[in-house]
Amino acid sequence: MTGGGDWQRDVLRQLTDGNPEPVAPAVPEEHAAQAAPEPRQPSPPAASAPPPVPRRTPDPRVPAPVPESLPTVDPRLALALGNPHHGDSAARRAGTSLRRLTASATQEVAEQTRLAQEVQQPVTTGRVIAVTSIRGGVGKSTVSALLGRTFNHYRHDPVLTLEADAALGTLPVRMGADTVRWCCADLARILTPAMQLTDITGYLVPVADGGWLLPASQGRVGAPMDIRTYRTVTLALRRYFAVTVVDCETLPGEVARTAMDTAHARVVVAPMTAEGIHGTRQVLDWLGQLPHSALAGTVVVLSANSPDTTMDPKTAAAHLREPGVPVVPLPYDRHLAQGGPIHTAMLGRSTRDAAVRLAAEAMRRAVRVR
After folding, report:
1. Suppose 199 and one of 4, 195, 291, 302 were both cysteines; which one would form an S-S bond, judging by CB atoms 3.0 to 4.6 Å apart?
2. Contact at 8 Å (CB) between 201 and 100?
3. Helix extents (H) in 265-340
4. Three-state DSSP class for 38?
5. CA-closest candidate to residue 7, choices 20, 21, 26
6. If DSSP codes are grouped into helix, strand and coil, which group holds residue 50?
């Protein structure tokens, strides 16, 4: 009998001891063909995790790359906009002037003065007013632009209109910006506590009627704004601007929920449709469940985007007022429906009055928050 059992036990013992290559004992030549072991294939190397990529800390001595300036509207398309229409027709403007002559001028002036005082309330720290809606295309950016222009007109301290919408937001166009360069993500990377207002405004877009604009992007399809960028920009810029109007993305986006939760006042734009009013009411019920009484700082804008709407505005407003929020109707306006830049002088009289009332309602609630 050969020593086959012994050498197998030796091989097992050597493998157990961790020797990489066990040595087999000699085998007689007559059994060499049968006893020769199969040639061993080299085992593949064990998979190892790739080494972590070291995070590069930006060198403060190296300036951030300057983005190129891009037009908000393609110049070939801008030629097709045509001349802006007035919000009211000529017949309606004549009727409005006649009614103003026969109405009590003292009462009208008193109401306008009261609303102007509400808009001009002094603040100790910057107030943030967030504007959102349940879906796009209902006039959210239009309402944000109207608010920004109204605050710019009545207030004498710096006012910022900030876009926190997706990459293809329309706020720069509505605010009348011809080109955009720096956006929120760019500014978030270079903000420092030592910067002065004159340093900040170098990265913003000046608005024709006063105030400043900070776009969310350059109008290209890309990654939307994240929560960290939004918090960084809004918290830092509150030092420099008395009022910041934020054009948020639509609900239930993460940035929109964060903006609605952290703003001093909230404006929810509801379209004059059954499904739009129903969805907005659900948003109001959600705000009422937040722990810090967000509903008390909310205003609803009931926007009529068509002159042929069949929804009864009084019934719609009453349904939205049930949670205890004010409702500001925004009538159909030919100038707003045309699209493109908003010219304040071309707005209808009812639209201008609604914008001032909305600004007063939002500012009154923003100042309540301490």
Report:
1. 195
2. no
3. 274-288, 313-321, 334-338
4. coil
5. 26
6. coil
Domains in the chain (CATH in brackets) are: 122-368 (3.40.50.300)
3-state secondary structure 140-193: HHHHHHHHHHHHHHHCCCCEEEEEECCCCCCHHHHCCCCEECCCHHHHHHHCCC
Provide the angle, in degrees to the nearest 10, between the axes of the packed helices 105-119 and 140-154: 100
Stretches where the chain sits below pLDDT 70 are 1-64, 74-82, 87, 89-105, 166-168, 219-223, 370
Three-state helix/strand/coil letters over 206-253: ECCCCCEEECCCCCCCCCCCCHHHHHHHHHHHCCCCCEEEEEECCCCC
Per-residue pLDDT, 71: 73
**E strand or H helix at 265:** strand 265-271
Which residues fall within 8 angstroms of residue 288, CB to CB, at 6 or more apart? 294, 295, 323
**Backbone torsions φ then ψ of 318, nearest 5 degrees:** -65, -40
User: Which H or E run includes 267?
Assistant: strand 265-271
What is the C-alpha separation between 98 and 101, in angstroms, rounded? Answer: 5
Chain CA centroid to CA 158, Å: 21
Tokens of 111: 């109401």
Question: Tell me, what's the pLDDT at 47?
Answer: 47
> With 0-12 CB in 10 A as exposed, 13-18 as middle and 19+ as buried, what is 288?
middle
